[in-house]
Amino acid sequence: MFCGSSSGARPDYEHAARQLGEALVEHGYDLVYGGANVGLMATIADTVLDRGGRVTGVIPEALVQKEVAHRGVSELRVVASMHERKATMATLSVGFIALPGGLGTLEELFEVLTWAQLGLHAKPCGLLNVAGYYDRIVDFLDYAVSERFVKASHRSMMVVESEPEALLRRFLDYQAPVVDKWIDRKQT
C-alpha cells in the first residue's frame, strides 16, 4: 500500500482508507505499507489491525528517529534506506495499491509500475481513485499512450477504480499482459 503521510483535505480520503482496510481483511489480505503512524498510512493500518488483520510496516531508520513509526503493527521492519524500504515492500507484496498521497506515493507507485513494464514482476498495480483524486494522472497516462511514450499494453497494467471492492475484484482477475519487448524500435 502506498498512501499519504497526510490525511489530505477531504474526509473522503480517510473514509476510503478505512473501507479499503476493511475490504483487505474481509478478502484475507495482509497489509504491507510504509510503517508510519500518521495520515492515511495510520488510518489504513489501524483499520486492518482493528478488524483482526495482519500489518507489516517497513520504515527507514531515519523516519523511526523522527518518531513516526507505528509501534502497534504486527511486524515493524526497520531498514537502512528508502531504497531498501521499497525493495522489501515489493518482495512482501502480492499487489500494489495507491490511495491518495503526494510525491512519495507517486514515486513508489510508478517505480513498481515500471518494474512491471520491464517484466520484473507480474503483480497488479492499482489506483484507488477517491473523489477523482487521480483523474489527471489517468489522463496523463492515456496521453502518454497517444504520444507513443507508453504502450497501451503497459498502460493496461494500471488498474483504476473508485471503490475498494471493485479494485480488489479486478486484482483477483488480473493477468499481466505478455509483451515481448517494452519498446518498438521501428518507432524510435
Spell out the key features of this protein.
single chain; 188 residues; alpha/beta; Rossmann fold
Tell me what the structure shows.
With 188 residues, the chain is α/β, with parallel strands linked by helices. The chain has one domain: Rossmann fold. The protein has 8 helices and 6 strands; from the N terminus they run H-E-H-E-H-E-H-E-H-E-H-H-E-H. A 3-stranded parallel sheet has the order 1-2-3, with helices on both faces. Strands 4-5-6 form a 3-stranded parallel sheet, with helices on both faces. Helix 1 packs parallel to helix 2. The radius of gyration is 16 Å and the shape is globular. The relative contact order is 0.14. The model has no long low-confidence stretch (mean pLDDT 94).
Briefly, what is this?
With 188 residues, the chain is α/β, with parallel strands linked by helices. The chain is built from 8 helices and 6 strands, in the order H-E-H-E-H-E-H-E-H-E-H-H-E-H.
Number of domains: 1
User: What strand order characterises the main sheet?
Assistant: 1-2-3
* Proportion in β-strands: 5-15%
- Multimer state: single chain
Structural class: alpha/beta
Mean of residue pLDDT values: 94
CATH architecture descriptor: 3-Layer(aba) Sandwich
- Please estimate the helix content: 40-55%
